[in-house]
Amino acid sequence: MHRSNGASSSLRTYAPRRRTGGIAVVVGLTAAVGCSASAAPGAGEAITVSVSIAAPANAPIFLADELGYFKDEGLDVKVETIANASLQIATGKVQYGAVNTSTVIQAATQDIDLQQICVTQVDPSYMLAVSNQAWDRNDMSESMSLKEQLTALKGENITAIGGRTVNPGAKLLESLLEKEGLPRDWIGVLSQANTAASTAAFQKGQVGLVFQPQPIPDQVLSVAPGKIIYDTGSSDLFAELDSVAWSGVGASRSYAADHPDVSEKICNAVGKANNYLDEHPEDAAKALHQSMNSFGEDVLVDSMGSYKWAKDADMTEEQFTKSVEVLAGLGMFEEPSADVLEDAYTADYQK
After folding, report:
1. What is the signed CA dihedral for 174, 200, 14, 135, rounded to 10 degrees?
2. Cross-strand partners of 100
3. How far is residue 340's CA from residue 351's CA, in Å, rounded to a whole number?
4. What is the pTM of this model?
5. What is the pLDDT of residues 147-202, one digit of tens each?
């Protein structure tokens, strides 16, 4: 992937446009009890695969369902949107679900039986957008370097569901500031309970920044004008994120081990969806629109190409370990022990 670290290469100006749908904020699952779910299925019963939100980060699971890949594997899968489902996955109340690597490592560190069994997204791309209000009040200009722009933004805030300590975007922002020689708290993080509150805060000028994957920046800026000034996915500053396991599919270790054939079929179906997303991102976006109808179809089409997916949903345990080292180095979590890594990830159910 080509990367650069200049501010001007990623600067894009937005004015309000009419778009359909609302705003969704993509955050990682946390190890907390959410809504109730059914117990482990018996023979012939549907298998639940959870997602935290209907957004592009969970596209492989939705697409595997939409294109019939689960059915091709002989599985009766029900995809359910369940916020904060990681503990339910760990206890087997939900059989499988979307998880991010940070959550899995933190859960394993706390002896929570949550294991990642295959990989969905790699090489995350987060974009930093500045509202026109924040741009003007901080006397910013397009001729400034990225460091100068970040320096000018001292005291501004982003919103993050869950706050600074658990939100992956908030941790990436801290790393960006540190890489540019600024304190990790140079830009503040305001915790919000839901997407609507975060969006309203930006529209009303209470916060001046958005740091999220697409299509969220585009969609926010379509109703509150501003500029995108930085993208981790095209910057040498985050070259270490290339091929890093950012998210995947998780299960409890015991459930996955007791149902190895099902676990393998889940990974096979998700792997086919990963490959389709990488090879046909626009067609995938159109197929996903019904499941993700809070986003306009044009927004999904425009944004899907910014996501990178693990081929066949596969990753060796050695590669996953290296991914964890990178994420720990970026301050996502404390570097785990070898025992924690063994509990947190397995490639046993991959091809």
Report:
1. -60
2. 247
3. 23
4. 0.85
5. 999 999 999 999 877 677 778 889 999 999 999 999 999 999 888 766 667 777 88
